[in-house]
Amino acid sequence: xxxxxxxxxxxxxxxxxxxxxxxxxxxxxxxxxxxxxxxxxxxxxxxxxxxxxxxxxxxxxxxxxxxxxxxxxxxxxxxxxxxxxxxxxxxxxxxxxxxxxxxxxxxxxxxxxxxxxxxxxxxxxxxxxxxxxxxxxxxxxxxxxxxxxxxxxxxxxxxxxxxxxxxxxxxxxxxxxxxxxxxxxxxxxxxxxxxxxx
Length: 198
Hints:
The protein has helices at residues 5-26, 42-67, 73-111, 113-116, 127-134, 137-147, 155-179, 190-194. By secondary structure, it is an all-alpha fold. One of its GO terms (cellular component) is endomembrane system.
């Protein structure tokens, strides 16, 4: 049975995300040495989400190729669970977080580059890696949405899940802020925040 082009495309996207993650983690940046490391940046969390999502897509494709025509009810039930996990992850994490990261990064970058991606980072992160982290996410996820049918969760469960993720990320940012003198995006000293100046 031949692979469909969208299945090959998913493998290529997964490999590109793995390459971007490996190259990013290999960079020696001062922020990687502080509490939370790369995990304090939503961009890195989004890359992990995208890699896991496309990994689930590839696993779903492989499972459907292996179970097609077998007639095994248990395998088909497991495949349906995997497909529903893939669809849930797209609707709740991969698409909303991916679009948010791309849109917010490039809007703030256009407004004031130093606010989100100082020129100093050019010494650590090559341009192709910056685009791999902040640009390719959107076309890859749009291609996935266009080439495959997805069943989306109910609006209430989807909103509850993305709100849970958002609150978790905010709490994580607060934790990293309390462990050092300034959070990764707002470089104001703690004493200003204690005094009530926001």
